């Protein structure tokens, strides 16, 4: 049973926070409905949040789980990663299972994008497992399209020691080298991530959900994370800025790249088309093995 969700200031961010009897806790910022912290009963934090992140209530928060909507990256005319991460979401429901946050169209969203929508982010928390689900509905009279991502910053002790399994055989676009290839067998390591970083989009065609494993071999057993994306996530984006970009990002410490790896459930290569009234969902579930 969770203590009631309470509105707090978490490291300077207005946020909703809950702690469960076993010690599990979660913190969700009002801005962007951005999950900022998820701690399991052992006290371990599983999300990276940059201590240098801006806290002005508008600039993107560097860390946690930003919701990129209705545009991913700079693949369109909107601000980078859309506007959802810059705006305040309403708390719709909060109980012992989790919390639901809502963003609907307003003058602020229509300034960028003329469409009517209802976006709900549902964060469900269990012992050692958390699910983030984004439901988007077209509440207008005309069809529209979007791209989106759940841009999770997973906290790692040292990215150079971290390995990701489950990507083999997937078509991959390396955004830094602008090359395309099929990911070879074996897991992916990030020891070479120091430079120039790592920024790849993996295609996951088909309806089955994709299962990845994040491993930190230097850590005791039981620190393995399973990452499952819903079948609607047609891409997985894996990103780490590396040394140079980390230095140039004003909202990240110089060595911030070492403690994080973004593994993102995304739907970006083919925009999602929604007819009036139509709804679409994407989710990511993180489980501590
Ligand atoms: O700095 P941001 O706007 O938050 O974007 C951070 C990163 O997001 C994604 O992972 C993209 O693949 C990267 O190319 C981008 O640099």
From TrEMBL:
Keyword annotations for this protein, in alphabetical order, are:
Isomerase
The GO terms describing molecular function are:
carbohydrate binding; glucose-6-phosphate 1-epimerase activity
The record's section on InterPro entries has: Aldose_1/G6P_1-epimerase, G6P_1-epimerase, Gal_mutarotase_sf_dom, GH-type_carb-bd
Task: Kindly report, in one word, the top-level EC class recorded for this enzyme.
Answer: isomerase
Q: What is its EC number?
A: 5.1.3.15
Active-site residue list: 151, 264
Which reaction does this enzyme catalyse, per its entry? alpha-D-glucose 6-phosphate = beta-D-glucose 6-phosphate
Q: Which Pfam families match?
A: Aldose_epim
Which terms does the UniProt entry file under GO BP? carbohydrate metabolic process
Cellular component, GO annotation:
cytoplasm
Q: Which family does it belong to?
A: Belongs to the glucose-6-phosphate 1-epimerase family.
Protein name per its UniProtKB record: Putative glucose-6-phosphate 1-epimerase
Organism per entry: Comamonas koreensis
Organism lineage string: Bacteria, Pseudomonadati, Pseudomonadota, Betaproteobacteria, Burkholderiales
